[in-house]
Specification:
The chain is of the alpha/beta class. 56% of the residues lie in helices and 12% in strands. α2 packs across α4 and α3 (45-52) packs across α4. It binds adenosine-5'-diphosphate (ADP), shikimate-3-phosphate and magnesium ion (MG).
């Protein structure tokens, strides 16, 4: 069993939003890794970061992604930092991985002041710029399909993807 599509990309790329729309169009279930982690931990992502730290969150994330890749056949949206783990990049090989590409200006306007995203709690502009630069090669490495999202409406992106998958 393999997800119909795994969505990767930076915070604000639209993984959660476009993923849900894409799943509706394909008539398959949708799962967001962050929501699965929150359900498992029994608390929101910012509280996991605050109480247990980022390393603990990343361990939960690696385990959730590994298990879901083997057991889920819908559309699966990852958190923006999931691909930082070499283990996760390796596990993505052989799957249909969609990279939702977003430039700095659109990403910034979409995430705003970073509410709900603990990594962007301090200095969201500079942090987001750094994340985009650091992670771009990793998203490119795992992607089998790349979609530019700048200036495009989520539903148009989902429609384009549904036609391509
Ligand atoms: N293509 C888009 N155009 C404009 N706004 C978008 C687009 N995709 C997502 N958004 C908005 O940006 C914010 C972040 O989207 P989200 O799906 O949570 O991104 P991600 O899961 O990749 O971090 C949400 O408020 C969402 O409504
Ligand atoms: O970029 C990151 O490292 C993170 C992105 C978030 O998901 P989104 O990319 O859906 O915002 C969430 O997993 C967590 O706050 C860490
Ligand atoms: Mg998301």
């Amino acid at each position: 069993m393999s997800p119909r599509a795994v969505l990767v990309g930076a915070p604000g790329a639209g993984k959660t939003t476009v993923g849900r729309l894409l799943a509706d169009r394909l008539g398959v279930p949708f799962l967001d890794a962050d929501s699965a982690i929150e359900a498992e931990a029994g608390k929101p992502i910012p509280e996991i970061f605050f109480d247990e730290g980022e390393e603990h969150f990343r361990a939960l994330e690696r385990a959730t992604v590994a298990a879901t890749l083997e057991s889920f056949d819908g559309v699966f949206a990852l958190g923006g930092g999931a691909i930082l783990a070499a283990e996760t990049r390796k596990a993505l090989a052989g799957h249909t991985v969609v990279y939702l590409e977003v430039g700095f200006a659109d990403a910034l306007s979409r995430v705003g002041l970073g509410a709900g995203r603990p990594l962007l709690a301090i200095n969201p502009r500079a942090t987001l710029k750094h994340l985009l630069d650091q992670r771009r090669p990793l998203y490119e490495e795992v992607a089998t399909v790349t979609v530019v999202t700048d200036g495009l409406d989520p539903d148009a992106i989902a429609a384009d993807l549904a036609a391509r998958l």
